[in-house]
Amino acid sequence: MSSSSPSGSGSDLTERRGIPAAKFIQDVETYLSQSGLDPNSALAFHQERLQQYKVVEMKLLAQQRDLQAKIPDIEKCLEVVATLEARKGTGEALLADFEVSEGIYSRACIEDTDSVCLWLGANVMLEYSCEEASALLKNNLENAKASLEVLVADLQFLRDQVTVTQVTIARVYNWDVHQRRVKQATPTAIAAADS
């Protein structure tokens, strides 16, 4: 988010992983006079910040969906590797159905094996021993779960900032409406007092 603080005091804003914190505006009149903004400029700044928050939220939600889909896949791979390790040395073949492409499956007879091939993505597949594969998958699972926890915390922080920004927009708008009504009522009151 490239917009700077309209008050020019960016040092009092905190952030979480690059997401700037929204500052609650206690006194709108003081805020406007200190920042040197008129109500329309302040509203424009906060509405722009709100849109930036929404864009970041969409990106974080997409990352969250990806991780939530990835974790069960890793767990399923761990189960398969554990099954292969358990059957190692028994001489018993394992019948398995595997996905060739979306919706197309094939059946395989897996004999005693010491290695497995893991799909790493980007058209890359590597062969690992069962022990190495298990260690790699466990590490990937821990990393994915940790990343998901961080994402959830980021989303909560972001939602708090959206709420504060929406409240600020409402407060500035309502203050501006009130000031306009006072200005409209003042000439009428002076004219009534003169007659």
UniProtKB/TrEMBL annotation:
Family: Belongs to the prefoldin subunit alpha family.
Biological processes annotated in GO: microtubule-based process; protein folding; response to cold; tubulin complex assembly
Subunit note: Heterohexamer of two PFD-alpha type and four PFD-beta type subunits.
Record-annotated membrane-spanning stretches: none
Domain of life according to the entry: Eukaryota
Function: Binds specifically to cytosolic chaperonin (c-CPN) and transfers target proteins to it. Binds to nascent polypeptide chain and promotes folding in an environment in which there are many competing pathways for nonnative proteins.
Coiled coil: 134-161
SUPFAM superfamilies: Prefoldin
Entry keywords, A to Z: Chaperone, Coiled coil
CDD domains: Prefoldin_3
Protein name: Prefoldin subunit 3
InterPro entries: PFD3, Prefoldin, Prefoldin_subunit_alpha
Organism: Arabidopsis arenosa
A cellular component annotation (GO) from this entry: prefoldin complex
An example Gene Ontology molecular-function term: tubulin binding
Pfam families xref list: Prefoldin (PF02996)
